[in-house]
TrEMBL record:
Protein name: tRNA (adenine(58)-N(1))-methyltransferase
Coiled-coil segments on the chain, per record: none
Any one Pfam family match given in the protein's UniProt record, by short name: GCD14
Residues where S-adenosyl-L-methionine binds: S119, G120, S121, L122, D140, D168, D188
GO terms, molecular function: tRNA (adenine(58)-N1)-methyltransferase activity
Catalytic activity, reaction form: adenosine(58) in tRNA + S-adenosyl-L-methionine = N(1)-methyladenosine(58) in tRNA + S-adenosyl-L-homocysteine + H(+)
Entry keywords, A to Z: Methyltransferase, Nucleus, S-adenosyl-L-methionine, Transferase, tRNA processing
GO CC term (a single one): nucleus
Principal subcellular localisation of the protein: nucleus
GO biological process: one example: tRNA methylation
Documented EC number(s): 2.1.1.220
Domain of life from the UniProt record: Eukaryota
Amino acid sequence: MLCSDGTKKLSFGGSIKDGDLVIVYEKRDVMKAVKVSETSVLQNRFGVFKHSDWIGKPFGSKVLSNKGGFVYLLAPTPELWTLVLSHRTQILYIADISFLITYLEIVPGSLVLESGTGSGSLTTSLARAVAPTGHVYTFDFHQQRAASAREDFQSTGVDSLVTVGVRDIQGEGFPDEYSGLADSVFLDLPQPWLAVPSAGKMLKQDGTLCSFSPCIEQVQRTCEALKSNFRDIRTFEVLLRTFEVHEGKIDSCQGEEGLSVRSPPCKRRHRSSEGSAMQDSSSSPTIKVRPCADARGHTGYLTFSRLQVSLS
């Protein structure tokens, strides 16, 4: 669980306790969130794991099953939570999240307004960025989604840093009580241009706004709306290319597909003075690096702008 004490840095407790949320790591692309209960067990292809064996162990521990299989128990950091959370809506991923937190200039103590909450992927990272003295006010028009988000924030330990409201920001705008108080505003809406005037009223002088849209037509209309009260308008598309790194053997005369490659001819085996055969160094393990086959492409466009400073 995240410690959100205002006098301390946001961090995880030293050991796993009954009721904590942990990320069970089976392999790189197989992880799940599990709430620890002393009387419960986890069953998977590696065997049966008793939760009671997890309690008291530090996050990051390797635990064994009844069959000798193992998993790792990881802390539910915002990055890992993004990979295992329930998708109630399309979510933002790490590349977009890290980029927008930097461009929105979000730091500890910031007050951030967000709409809409969705699955809470971004909100969890925003909470860590503003901790320990800042706050995130996030809004979603869907009541059940907002309720589910509150439960998730409590599970991940950021509920003291996040307030979830039910409100149609496109139609009603942000609540007047935040007028002139927000350091940053984030919009993830079908028609973000409708919320731009309200966002402008919420921001402090020189405050920053970001709008996330999957279609370029949405970006165009949003930029038109921003021209009246905002400056330094920029749009980005963040494309992340992930590579796989693993150990293997490569024949210097044969490619991975069995085709000839341009390389020096294979050396013959030579016998040492003791008569043992010596193999060419090309047969030793080699580190292979290649792009992942399931790399993500386009997710959306991030449009940033800064509220104009009033000269009056």
